[in-house]
Amino acid sequence: MKSPVVGPRWGAPPWRFRFRIPSAPLPRSADAVVIGAGFAGLAAARSLAAAGLQVVVLEGGRVGGGASGRSGGVVLEGAAAGELPGLGSAIEALRERIRRDGIECGLELPGCLELAHRERAEGPWRERGWRDAGRWLVPAAEVPGGTLDPGALLSGMAAAATRAGARIHEGVRASRLRAMPAPALETTAGGLSAGLVVVAAGAFTGGLVPEAGELHAALTPALVTAPLPRDAGLGPAGGRPFYTVDLPYLWGRPLPDGALMLGAGLVRGDPEQLPNRRIDRGAFARAIRELEDRLRGLTPRFRGLGVRRRFAGPVCFRTGAVPLLCLHPESPRVALAGAFAGHGVALAPLAGELAAEALLGRRALPDWGRPCPDPAQDPAARSRRA
Ligand SMILES: Cc1cc2nc3c(=O)[nH]c(=O)nc-3n(C[C@H](O)[C@H](O)[C@H](O)COP(=O)(O)OP(=O)(O)OC[C@H]3O[C@@H](n4cnc5c(N)ncnc54)[C@H](O)[C@@H]3O)c2cc1C
Predict the structure, then answer these.
(1) 67 in ligand 1 pocket by Cβ < 6 Å?
(2) Which of 68, 122, 132, 291 could form a disulfide with 38 if both were Cys (CB 3.0 to 4.6 A apart)?
(3) From the CB of 318, is ligand 1 less than 6 Å away?
(4) Three-state DSSP class for residue 39
């Protein structure tokens, strides 16, 4: 598997990671190993360390170098598939995490605007609304949600995990995971045995755990404009984040300096090849161009609007957009948390925590339709492994 170190190929998001990770040699064994230092992995690490376990976090690139540090920071409830049984409120859980760990990440929850493409718009939405794909964008609903700074959230979560006793090792990639008879890993810095393992490797989960079932990986582009002109129209009315509920999909959020972050589109591909994709070449460059064209078409006031950043990040999803949150089909000592699609800012930390609590025997994981086939029940899973 190629290293998930991403660097400049995917462009630079506007967020900054501000926590200095203490360096430490990689031990040969640990009570618990977490693979991936995104939102899910850092939350799992904090929970496991707070329970008194010696926790090692392996991060193949830099903390947040996957989706979490490249996200739009739009805080959404539930999952891309909608509300999921047994989950509770992801936004409330995030709020509590931020309060408990003293994380300053600019969380604001003014609500999120759902927009729909319509042939007609009424009143102010006709006079000052935005147009996309030849139609008006009009409000369809307002849902709970808001925005935060993902770099600041990651920094606070890494600090909280470290304070609880977890050790984060950047630039150490897990190349192989053996679940049975006892969890063991091969890494780029040597072998490691573990009492418990949480796999929170985002778009690269399938490469480590083929048993996780069908996972799709893609890169999705985003851009950041110059600060918007004085009358930018009604798009993110009231400074709220927004997304369309129909196609073509478009999401956006205001930034504190008055700029707009806008994103849409998926460039699919073999997860192992994603790190090699460049945002200035091929399908990806086309996706960014299309996004810029859509930005300029939203309102005549945006025709000359500058674009300050173009970047991309990996998304991972299962068919039906139901996240992956389960124990490994071969071992109750390995948990999987991932495939949050474009919905992980609030959901991934909660799922990481739930995965840790399940390994600690404190709770059962919710059943969202058996994402990991149980080998005893599923002959197809048995034969896939044979
Ligand atoms: C451009 C973009 C915008 C988005 N906007 C939003 C948004 O506004 N709101 C929202 O809710 N969601 C959004 N998302 C989705 C959200 O960012 C993700 O759902 C969430 O961050 C996933 O977190 P994670 O911890 O599961 O994965 P990741 O953050 O991808 O973390 C996985 C980590 O594992 C590491 N890793 C992988 N393989 C290995 C290995 N073998 N060994 C060691 N380390 C490994 C990776 O380097 C990575 O750091 C967006 C995503 C993108 C790409």
Answers:
(1) yes
(2) 68
(3) no
(4) helix
pLDDT digits (tens, 9 = 90+) for 79-111: 888 888 888 999 999 999 999 999 999 999 999
Taking CA atoms only, the protein residue closest to ligand 1 atom 13 is 342
The structure's pTM equals 0.94
Residue 58 CA: nearest ligand 1 atom is 43
Q: What is the pLDDT of residues 278-336, one digit of tens each?
A: 878 888 889 999 999 999 999 998 999 999 999 999 999 888 888 999 999 889 999 99
Residue nearest to atom 19 of ligand 1 (CA): 344
- Beta-carbon contacts of 123 under 8 Å, excluding residues fewer than 6 positions away, are none
Candidate of 345, 350, 353, 354 to mutate for ligand 1, largest count of ligand atoms within 8 Å of Cβ: 345
Confidence of residue 254 (pLDDT cuts 50, 70, 90): very high
Q: How far is the CA of 69 from the centre of ligand 1 (A)?
A: 7
Instruction: For domain 112-143+217-318, give the fold.
Output: D-Amino Acid Oxidase; Chain A, domain 2 (3.30.9)
Distances from the Cα of 125 to the Cα of 114, 172, 208, 363, angstroms: 14, 51, 48, 48
Local structure of residue 117 (DSSP, 8 states): E
Burial class of residue 135 (count of CB atoms within 10 Å of its CB; 0-12, 13-18, 19+): middle
Nearest to 185, CA basis, from 85, 60, 364, 18: 60
Pair 48, 197: CB distance under 8 Å: no
SS3 311: strand
Question: Domain locations in the chain?
Answer: 7-73+150-214+320-385, 112-143+217-318
Pocket test for ligand 1, best of 9, 15, 71 (most atoms within 8 A of CB): 71
Q: Do residues 291 and 226 make contact, with C-beta atoms less than 8 angstroms apart?
A: no
Which of 9, 68, 353 has most ligand 1 atoms within 8 Å of its beta carbon, as the pocket-test mutant? 68
Q: How far is the CA of 339 from the centre of ligand 1 (A)?
A: 9
CATH fourth-level superfamily of 7-73+150-214+320-385 = FAD/NAD(P)-binding domain (3.50.50.60)
